[in-house]
Design brief:
Blueprint lengths: L11 E6 L3 H11 L4 E6 L6 E8 L5 E9 L4 H5 L4 E4 L6 H5 L11 E5 L5 H5 L7 E7 L2 E6 L2 E6 L3 E4 L12 H10 L3 E4 L3 H20 L13 H17 L6 H14 L6 H7 L10 H10 L5 H15 L3
Helix pairs in contact: 6-7, 6-8, 6-9, 6-11, 10-11
The structure holds pantoate (PAF).
Length: 318
Amino acid sequence: MSVQSYKKPAFAKICILGAGAIGQLIYHQLAEQSQSRLSFISRDANSSVQPLRFTTIDGQVINHKAALIGQADYQTHLSQIDLLIVCVKAYQVSDALKPILPRLSANAHILLLHNGMGPHLEVISMLKGRGLSLGTTSQGALKLDKWHVKQTGNGLTQLGSSQALTQLPPLPVKLKQLLLSAIPQSDWYSEILPLLWQKLAVNVAINPLTAIFNCLNGELAADKHKQVIANAVSELVVVAKHDGIELDLDFLLQRVYQVIELTANNFSSMHQDVQHQRKTEIDAINGFVLQRAAVHQLEVPVNLSLLQQIKQIEAKYE
Ligand code: PAF
């Protein structure tokens, strides 16, 4: 092959915003594929190279090095990104994206991957024509150290776009294939919102109750929680219907109890947030149900009570 005809392979440039447990897990899964140039966005002034450690579910330790893009390099680096994966908490999404979005090229695509729902409604107005995909993952990951993540559970990752967002450019096929082949048990949906509502149903039931009762997910199988779980999920089904999303209550309750069983020995993310006195994601979980209920002038007393109890717990943080 002549030197002139040699072409470098076109690596996709993927940047992750949010180096929490899920952000680092996704980084490692993409890095194993070595088909992309990966980086994290950092809030530091200067860029650096960060050694990362990853412990797989079966205890194997894998090391990678990550480029952390500092603010001094935002201008040059961010304009080259093909895909920005946003892995910050739901309540941080808008603020975290504000300094980043204007620096991305018009062709860049944004993927939001967080617990709960709601931020996409704020982000849509900031996109200026860039593409947006949404997703949720049930993979479990735990930070053992700032730059050491252990995968604690396998789980589905559901990614996709939405009818309501179709006027925006779709995720290029090459990037979609890359994500689906890198992330185990991941699927792409042309209409992702019903899947996000289904995951929300699991979270509205499990997250606040485990935090309020200071218990493992498995303890929610007890009879004393049955009524609240059924009511919280049935309120969500009514709100979703008014939002144009048809859900099946029996199917969702089965799903909730299946997750309670499968994750019986885990503490939910909200339980962990409360134990560490961190702000919880309640506003994007039961709070999202309340927000959409208000738009449709519906009452959701059980979700309201769960939200209020979590707010009371947060107010007592020292
Ligand atoms: O937020 C969580 O902890 C998880 O989404 C779930 C599925 C409730 C399991 O703990």
